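Q&A log
Question type: sequence-to-structure
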Amino acid sequence: MIYLMTLGGEGVPSSRLRWLNYLDDFRTEGFAVQSIHNSGVKSRIRQFLQVKPGSLVIIQKKLLTLLEILILKVKGCQLIFDIDDTVWLTHPQSEIPFLSPLKRLVKRITRLNNLRFYSHLICANEFLKEQLLPYNNSISVIPTSPSDTEFENVENTDNTFRIVWTGTAPNFFYLEAIQDQLAQFLNNHDNAELCIISNSKFIPTGLTDNSQVRNIEWTIDAESNWIQASSIGIMPLTLDNWSAGKSAFKILKYMKLKIPVIATDFGYQRKLIKNGENGFLVSNEKWGGVLEDLYDKRTRLGSITEKGYMTYMGMYSKTIILKQYLSVLEKFMKTGKKK
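Response status: OK
Response body:
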């Protein structure tokens, strides 16, 4: 039996894209998989006490306490930890001087050290692997695929130069890092629009006409439709270790849905994008200039778009990532298959 404990439900992008979208595929391949809910230590302990002995337990992102690990190990379970963020760091929006470094130290000493009790770790990129190797050397790198099933071939029919960003509200600080440049670009072009697909609303400071921002409440279909109806997809980052751990599935989403991409020249985005070939990399102080350049070339980006799609299909499609997951499951839990 395989138990999968994700960080959240379908509304949590990493849970949906990295695991929940594959549950039916795992079952089709003969694995008995049960999804369990992560809702605090007490709830997790109650659920772990009900886990069948000898099972494989996959934990997404949450660093378990030693007590939780011992409960599962006593039952003869194998543990796999899946991570696509630097969860041992404090989120930049939650930084408190003096207290945050102390919290990071406690996490590193306690929860990270517990990783040695896991059978295997799955990391979304090489940066995360390098960070966790001191705690466990059994690691696979499996990127995050934009694994949603979507309607395709939606066209931008209104001739608006639409810049799209998709993500959750806690990550608005990435947009804030370039919001002055976004506002200036929009102020200079009446037919330009910023489309934000999220669980909250965002308007860049300095914008003259707020109607140039279209805030769309996130759903799988809305995200798919509005990305395809956009001229370019963006993924700005701040230059820190938190961002270095990001797996850039936003970029892959844009590539999959065949729009050109611009991303901060940092972290995993450098692995995905070959500047000027399948997308564009930019330093954070030069976003405005790159947007102006692409606005002028907007009718001549077909080759960039096609090469971006080929990048997605060649290395990051759901079919490719599924094979990598199945390889891990076969290795660590052969008895997880139905008899």
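Response note: The longest strand covers residues 192-198.
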